[in-house]
């Protein structure tokens, strides 16, 4: 009942005050203009033993949207992006999955004031009715500390970057949520920590996937 009221209210708001297209920022009655909607390239790909579901490539228009979300103080963009992820990849989200976002290190979180992946997970949860747990994982290493360390050290740091801290993870089926997946090292490390806590992890939802094996510097840079 409440959700029905909320959706009616949202429809009324769309008519009275059109929102901004999440892709190109023109005023539209909804989340996307027809052109940007057509440019989405939802796809599913295997990454080792994980299945990564994305809305499109990072080097397309979606990459610009993600950069606005992360670096230009636009946490509101997580709403349409997460909602669209939940809608277009609903088939992989059946059952009682728990949505767990990739966390930021506390230093980065203090700087940005929001974790874009946690906002995406919240929007996916709203769309799908699944639970989300923004505190299930803790990030132990910061990107700043990694700079200057050797490749071997960096790889070890990534493997030990996460700590699973929720008891209810044992036996849970977790779906990881992140904004961009590049090499996959981060989501693999997060999946490892969650599995060590007794969860099963098979699916990653992300807005963008980088197309090439060598990700662009922008995609790697501050989370
Ligand atoms: Zn648009």
**Tally of strands:** 10
Which molecules are bound besides the chains?
zinc ion
- Rough shape? globular
**How many domain modules?**
2
Spans where pLDDT lies below 50 across 5 or more residues = 214-218
From the alpha carbons, calculate the radius of gyration and give it in angstroms.
Answer: 17 Å
Strand content: 15-25%
Major pleated sheet: 6 strands, mixed
Sketch the topology as an H/E string, one letter per element. HEEHEEHHEHHEEHHEEHEH
Structure description:
The chain is an alpha/beta fold and 223 residues long. It folds into 2 domains: 39 residues, no CATH class; 181 residues, Rossmann fold. It is built from 10 helices and 10 strands. The strands form 3 sheets. It has a 6-stranded mixed sheet. A two-stranded antiparallel sheet has the order 1-2. α4 crosses α6. The chain is globular, with a radius of gyration of 17 Å. It starts with a helix and ends with a helix. The structure holds zinc ion (ZN). The site of zinc ion has 8 residues, from α2.
């Amino acid at each position: 009942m409440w959700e029905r009221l909320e959706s009616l209210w949202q429809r009324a708001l769309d008519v009275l005050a059109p929102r901004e297209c999440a892709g190109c920022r023109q005023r539209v009655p909804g989340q996307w203009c027809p052109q940007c909607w057509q440019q989405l390239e939802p796809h599913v790909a295997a990454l080792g033993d994980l299945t990564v579901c994305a809305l499109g490539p990072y080097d397309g228009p979606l990459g610009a949207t993600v950069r606005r979300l992360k670096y230009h103080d636009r946490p509101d963009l997580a709403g349409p992006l997460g909602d669209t992820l939940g809608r277009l990849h609903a088939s992989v989200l059946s059952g009682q999955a728990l949505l767990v976002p990739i966390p930021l290190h506390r230093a980065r979180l203090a700087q940005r004031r929001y974790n874009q992946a946690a906002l995406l997970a919240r929007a996916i949860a709203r769309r799908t009715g699944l639970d989300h747990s923004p505190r299930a994982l803790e990030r132990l290493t910061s990107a700043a500390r990694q700079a200057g360390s050797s490749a071997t050290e960096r790889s070890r740091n990534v493997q030990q970057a996460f700590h699973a801290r929720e008891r209810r993870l044992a036996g849970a089926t977790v779906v990881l949520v992140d904004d961009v997946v590049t090499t996959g090292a981060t989501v693999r490390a997060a999946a490892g920590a969650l599995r060590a806590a007794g969860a099963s992890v098979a699916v990653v939802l992300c807005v963008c996937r980088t197309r090439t094996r060598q990700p662009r510097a922008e995609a790697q840079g501050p989370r």
